[in-house]
Design a protein that fits this description.
Helix content: over 70%
Strand content: under 5%
Shape: globular
Distance between the termini: 33 Å
Largest sheet: none
Radius of gyration: 24 Å
Structural class: mainly alpha
Order of helices and strands: HHHHHHHHHHHHHH
Amino acid sequence: MAFRFILPALICMLCVHIIPILLGAYLAFIDLDIYTVTQWIRAPFVGLKNFADVFSLRTDIGVRYLRSIWNVVYFGLVTIPAGYVIGLLVALLLNRRFFGRTLVRGLILLPYITPDSVAYNVWRFIFQARIGIVNKYLLALGLIQEPILWLVGDRAIYAVMVASIWKGWPFACLVLLAGLQNIPQELYEAARIDGASPFALFRFITFPMLRPVSATLLLLSAIWNFHAFNQFYILLGTDPGKAHVPSTFILQEAFTNLHLSKGAAMSVFLSLVVFLMTVAMLRLRRREG
């Protein structure tokens, strides 16, 4: 009887997740492109050739894919610490009592709850070369002599970083604020009696007590950032150029250039990395629990 209740969910999981994953893994080991897509069942088996091509510095697709991996790692190394620091500072402020604290706590969530399509399109307008307010104020302050192309070339990834930090720090703030409220106040009272300074309170009580929450938050942020897509696609379009990350590069190679098998190979690697990071997060939470 119980199996009948979960059968619809199992069928959905099978059709939406399991079968596509297995099919994608199968495509990674055959030679499927624009010439063989109509007869994909008969496409030749090539083993690990697709993986060798996408990780080789001797092929154009390999160079570009490895660059996209470096881009998403660099992107995470900047946005995750920045979002954490901003979120922590705001959480420390919101953990204090002041007039209108409840209203402010609600307002800080506005960037996070704003749909990606809305938020990143606004930032795309902000970084426009001719009419964007970034160039407008930089010109007014005399910091630049001519408008900068923020959404093209080497600077594009920095524009995405700024927008992503703005969009993501409220979540970090919310999680850290919850962690701060779970710290026993008796620890602070005892430390103050012993003459501890505010910095000592943060160093020896607040920060260590936030370590489990911080570890989970940072690892979860790393998982989300590694398969970042929306911010790059909305801000930079279908071809970000040098600012490609794995998700956008897979989209271009698999569905625009129709290198389906190579796109599948890149997707398998991306899925494997995310899976390993997820396992690490689950083990961390189990150890802390």
